[in-house]
Amino acid sequence: MIGGIAIATIYWYVLLVCAALAVVLVIFGDVFDFDGPVDPMLIIPWLTFTSLLGYLGETLTEQSSFFIFIVSGIIATVLVFLLNFYILMPMKHAESTLSASEKSLEGQIATVVTPIPIQGMGEIQLKSVTGSISRPACFYAPQETEIKRGEKVLIIEVRDRVCYVTPYESMLKI
């Protein structure tokens, strides 16, 4: 007992408070950007797991409260590490769209949809597994002739959603 309150009761109240904070962090977690040394997205689950395991340990076993706290803290640390490593970190680095990123377009071959004049812009189309995308395009280096509709181009660089292309000449003659 701590201050006349059973330890299992303390674990229970900490579990309820942490569950409420977890709901708040899920809803508003993207609004707040925590760049400090202590990330609430890891502290709240650690407290939740520790209090859950501590509550279960206090009600189901006859071990000492100190031993139950240490074991539940160790198990919670492992669970939070796995949560962070396999769920939170990949979600932070995941792209929110299925379309290709601009850097992944570089080096790909596209088809001209709208002719690309010598001093101007045209339009190209790329086909992929997720569908096809169209982007504005202009020449990467000065050219002598325009590229007509249906011809192939090689994307050299992508800047500000504009593809800089050069005529594509296949090495294989079929």
Automatic annotation (TrEMBL):
Source species, domain of life: Bacteria
Which Gene3D superfamilies does this UniProt record tie to the protein? Nucleic acid-binding proteins
List all membrane-crossing ranges. Answer: 6-29, 66-88
Which residue numbers delimit the Membrane protein NfeD2 N-terminal transmembrane domain?
6-96
InterPro entries in alphabetical order = NA-bd_OB-fold, NfeD2_TM
Print the keywords alphabetically.
Answer: Membrane, Transmembrane, Transmembrane helix
Q: What is this protein called?
A: Membrane protein NfeD2 N-terminal transmembrane domain-containing protein
